Amino acid sequence: MKLYLDSANLGHIKEVASWGVLSGVTTNPTLIAKEDPSVDVKERILEIHNIVGGHLSVEVVSMNAEGMIKEAEEICSWFPLATIKVPMCPEGLKAVKELSKRNIPTNVTLIFNPIQALAANNAGASYVSLFMGRLDDIGMNSTEILSDISEIWYAQSLESQIIAASIRNPLHIVSAAKLGVHIATVPYNV
Ligand code: G3P
Questions:
Q1: What's the maximum distance between 2 C-alpha atoms anywhere in the chain?
Q2: What is the pLDDT of residues 25-69, one digit of tens each?
Q3: How far apart are CA 72 and CA 119, in angstroms?
């Protein structure tokens, strides 16, 4: 299972990259603003890209497919290997369908159940991100839900990759690895 860092902190990313265990980074607007609310997003994303080189998910903030696609085009003009992080919702699925036609990789985020994961896969997502911590927060068993997704993925030989996201503790990482999940995106403190 590959490990990504869920962070926009350059120091943390540099440190973990130096350990040789880092395959990518996932970001979101909150993580970027947390580091420095006045930061230029493009500048910060390119700084992260220069450190990591590998996978880098950059999230769109538009509310409709048209806006999301426009943002994706802009992000891909910064660096062509960007993965566009799109929220799980009908407009997000529309955007994923269009971006997949253009061979732009997408990471569908804010997935909370197997049906959403399947819908994202079928729309053409390259990655589907299940939010483990947020599920546990509302009294759901995130490991069971991840297990259902993993079972479906292997039964159906689906090609998109599962990301265990919203990781809050080491046991989330262990569960994801045991279930054959492809990637865990982990905050620095964990
Ligand atoms: O990768 C998703 C992550 O940034 C959300 O994590 O801890 O805010 O639920 P959390």
A1: 46
A2: 999 999 999 988 898 999 999 999 999 989 999 999 999 999 999
A3: 20
pTM over 0.90: yes
Question: Residue 156's CB: how many other CB atoms inside 10 A?
Answer: 10
The catalytically annotated residue of 42, 85, 97, 101 is 85
Q: Residue type for 52, please?
A: V
Residue nearest to atom 9 of ligand 1 (CA): 166
- Rg value, the chain, Cα: 16
Residue 50, Cβ neighbours under 10 Å: how many?
10
Q: Which residues line ligand 1 (CB under 6 A)?
A: 6, 26, 28, 131, 133-134, 165-166, 185
Query: 3-state secondary structure string, 66-80?
Result: HHHHHHHHHHHHHCC
Report the distance separating Cα 6 and Cα 44, nearest Å: 14
pLDDT of residue 37: 86
* Mean pLDDT of the region 141-168: 98
